[in-house]
Design a protein that fits this description.
mainly alpha, Ferritin, 6 helices, 0% strand, elongated, binds fe (ii) ion
């Protein structure tokens, strides 16, 4: 599927993708930070894993920020929305416990991975630096998804309630970021 965007004057599709992904990584950092805070009480055995994921997300955010700086473009207007939304989502799901935390990660990462693969396809042969940044993070996002999927009980209540809500919210934020 093509990557849809409303671009500003002089902005390339790769520029916009880097901005949106940078904001998204900030959101991911905030989700995990808030989940870690709540999980200390609700799911202490998950805290180390969540810290490991957050370290990855910080690395992703830094990687995309370097791309923004190299291109001389400002961060996305959705940056603070991603941060605040991520923190709220992370804290609420963290309070709900381990299955809600895992269901959130699976839903977010599934949507993110689909977008990343579409972005790679759209930018292939067009922007080598952007492509390298996308490829840099793909394996780690897949690890977050797969590890968390391993914590889920198939068809559980949490998956059925949280998955569609979180997936739709993630889609909405990306949709908005590509058009702001
Ligand atoms: Fe990430
Ligand atoms: Fe991730």
């Amino acid at each position: 599927m093509a990557v849809a965007a409303r671009l500003k004057l002089g902005e390339s599709l790769a520029d916009r993708v880097m901005k949106v992904d940078h904001a998204g990584e900030h959101g991911a950092v905030c989700i995990y930070s808030a989940q870690i805070a709540a999980a200390r009480w609700r799911a202490p055995d998950l805290v180390d894993e969540l810290r490991h994921f957050r370290d990855h997300e910080r690395g992703h955010r830094t990687r995309f920020l370097a791309e923004l700086e190299a291109r001389g473009v400002a961060r996305c207007r959705s940056y603070h929305l991603c941060g605040t939304g991520g923190a709220i989502l992370g804290f609420v799901t963290g309070l709900l416990g381990r299955h809600a935390i895992a269901a959130t990660t699976v839903a977010v990462e599934r949507v993110v991975l689909r977008h990343l693969h579409e972005q790679v396809a759209a930018l292939d042969g067009k922007d080598a630096a952007a492509l390298a940044a996308l490829r840099f993070i793909l394996a780690e996002e897949q690890e977050h998804h797969d590890t968390s999927a391993g914590h889920l009980v198939a068809g559980s209540w949490w998956t059925r309630i949280i998955d569609p809500v979180v997936a739709a919210s993630t889609e909405a934020v990306i949709w908005l970021g590509m058009r702001l």
